Structures are given as structure tokens and as C-alpha cells.
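Q: Please design a sequence for this.
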């Protein structure tokens, strides 16, 4: 007998399929994370490659490893994929890094991706799920103002649903660690620069090379504040010499460990 959870997941998958067929042709804002990857894969299955175009915004705020993984996923899944440059760093309002930074970023994304969709009569879709609606995400407002839609929300998908359905479909992204733009590592009020984003990217890549899949390096001037899952705190301490050397190697003077562990979007607490 099918379980209640499995039934609910199948119901949501059917709702997502109906929503995508209603849209007919989509351009997926494809970051390569679990959500956008799942959305792209389902869209590809339902609509076919002629009606699905995955587009990745490339800028200093995208980690180099994420861009490479987007390319790899597109190759593996046969997605029609295009990397496009966005220029949010040229906007003073974005670099200012106040509570509306994400608004300016998504507005820039839509400026670039919107015309691609319009040229083929497609709709821009983002991998926003129900859990995302509870956080401070002004970028969602910018996207909807520019005509983007959120099919996962329409089909009532939570983050857990996305991972469960991705696993069911055999997608390797089902357990991919949460990722966000590199600017999310910079506290509000600290100007975002290419140099800072590059340093954060290299520091996190160094930690990942040491085996930490889910990690953040929060930038506080000469200080790097490391976040890992709480069950890995002891591992960090056991390997502190290598970690300090790796993080100092990209330009930080002080290396600290956040004892509360990894929290996605935790810098948003400063806005409350």
C-alpha cells in the first residue's frame, strides 16, 4: 500500500506537471542547486528540450564550482543550456549591500533572462519552494514584478519534497548542499566587491577540498567566520591547523568557528 507521504509527493508531482504544461514553454533560471535542477529536470521530462531552456547567470557572485556544475548537469541531462553574464556589480545600489541587495540582483537577472524568454514566447520560472517564502527574499518580489513564476510554489513543494522527488527521479542533486550567491556571506552594510567575493569563493573551495560539503565562510574584514553543520564542529577542531592554513592562504588573517553551526540566510537576522 502506498504511504500517505508517497501519495502526497505523487500528487504534487502531478500538479507540477500540469502547471508546466499550462506554461507550455519555459526558461529556467538555473543555478544548479537542488531546486532549480529539479525544476529543470521535470520541465525537460514534461515539455521536451524544444520547450525548456536553462539559463545560468554568471557573475562574480556565482561560485566557480557552481558554474562548472551547471555545465556538467546540462551535459548529463541533455538540457539546452546557456550561461549569460549579469552585471549587478556595476550597480551602486547592489554594492551598497543593504536589505534590498537581492532585489537588485534578481532585477538584473530578469533584465538579462527576460528577453531570452520573450524571444521564444516562454515564461521565466524560478526554483522557489514554499520554505523560501518564509525568509527575507526581496529577490522574489523583483522576479514576480518582471513576470517570472514559481511552479514549485504553485504545486506546494517544500524543500523536503524537492529532495525526496529528486531522489525518486535519480537526480544526483537530491542531496546537494544548499548554495546561495557569494554576496550572502557579506554582512549587510559592508560594501560588496569583486575582491571580497573572490576571497570567499576561494576560502569555501579550500574547505570543500578538505571534505566539508556544507559550509559557509562569512566575511568580516580580515576575519573569516566558518559555519559547518553542527555534527562536524568537532571535525573542524581536529583539523584546525589545515583549515587555518587554507583560509589564511586566501587572505584572511583571523579564522573563527561559529559554534551555532551552519544556518542558511542567518545574516538576515540583522534586518529584524
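A: Design:
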Amino acid at each position: 500500500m502506498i504511504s500517505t507521504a508517497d501519495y502526497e509527493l505523487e500528487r504534487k508531482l502531478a500538479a507540477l506537471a500540469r502547471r508546466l504544461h499550462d506554461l507550455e514553454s519555459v526558461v529556467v533560471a538555473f543555478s544548479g542547486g537542488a531546486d532549480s535542477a529539479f525544476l529543470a529536470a521535470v520541465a525537460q521530462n514534461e515539455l521536451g528540450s524544444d520547450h525548456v531552456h536553462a539559463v545560468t547567470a554568471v557573475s562574480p557572485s556565482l561560485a566557480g564550482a557552481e558554474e562548472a556544475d551547471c555545465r556538467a548537469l546540462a551535459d548529463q541531462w541533455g538540457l539546452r543550456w546557456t550561461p549569460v553574464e549579469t552585471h549587478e556589480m556595476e550597480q551602486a545600489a547592489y554594492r551598497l549591500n543593504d536589505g534590498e541587495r537581492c532585489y537588485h540582483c534578481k532585477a538584473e537577472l530578469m533584465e538579462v533572462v527576460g528577453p531570452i524568454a520573450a524571444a521564444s514566447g516562454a515564461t521565466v520560472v524560478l526554483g522557489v519552494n514554499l520554505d523560501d517564502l518564509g525568509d527575507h527574499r526581496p529577490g522574489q518580489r523583483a522576479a514576480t514584478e518582471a513576470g517570472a513564476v514559481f511552479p514549485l510554489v504553485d504545486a506546494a513543494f517544500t524543500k523536503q519534497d524537492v529532495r525526496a522527488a529528486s531522489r525518486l527521479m535519480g537526480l544526483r542533486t537530491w542531496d546537494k548542499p544548499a548554495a546561495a550567491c557569494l554576496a550572502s556571506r557579506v554582512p549587510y552594510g559592508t560594501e560588496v566587491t569583486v575582491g571580497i567575493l573572490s576571497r570567499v569563493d576561494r576560502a569555501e573551495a579550500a574547505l570543500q577540498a578538505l571534505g566539508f560539503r556544507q559550509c559557509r565562510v562569512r566575511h568580516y574584514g580580515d576575519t573569516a567566520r566558518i559555519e559547518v553543520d553542527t555534527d562536524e564542529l568537532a571535525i573542524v577542531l581536529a583539523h584546525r591547523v589545515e583549515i587555518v592554513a587554507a583560509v589564511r592562504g586566501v587572505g584572511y588573517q583571523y579564522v573563527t568557528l561559529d559554534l551555532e553551526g551552519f544556518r542558511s540566510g542567518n545574516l538576515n537576522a540583522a534586518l529584524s
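Q: Thanks. Anything notable?
A: Residues 4-23 form the longest helix (20 residues). The mean pLDDT is 94.
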